[in-house]
Hints:
Pfam families: YabP (PF07873)
Organism: Extibacter muris
Structural class: alpha+beta
Protein name: Sporulation protein YqfC
Region (Disordered): 1-21
InterPro entries: Spore_YabP/YqfC, Spore_YqfC, YabP_sf
Amino acid sequence: MKARKKERRQDIESRSFRNKVAEASEMPKDVVLGMPVLTITGQLEMSLENYRGILEYTDALVRIQTKIGQIRITGKNLQVAYYTNDEMKVTGRIESIEYHH
């Protein structure tokens, strides 16, 4: 149990250091930290940059793995309109977007 707490503390310290580097260098955090970037257009469309993979995909749920955890999109008639190594677009009636670490 102690080893896990130590790993988590080191992870938090590492993220804090990278955050300070991003701020000092004036570079965008999404570039330095690999943070996901979501662009939402109303309830009909969401673009996501910096993701690692699609974990689950139905017309009611899309779960996506990112560097910082999972993003869960729920709605109706959801479709992955396109995806590349860096970016994807989800369309349909988006009802919620949740972050899970």
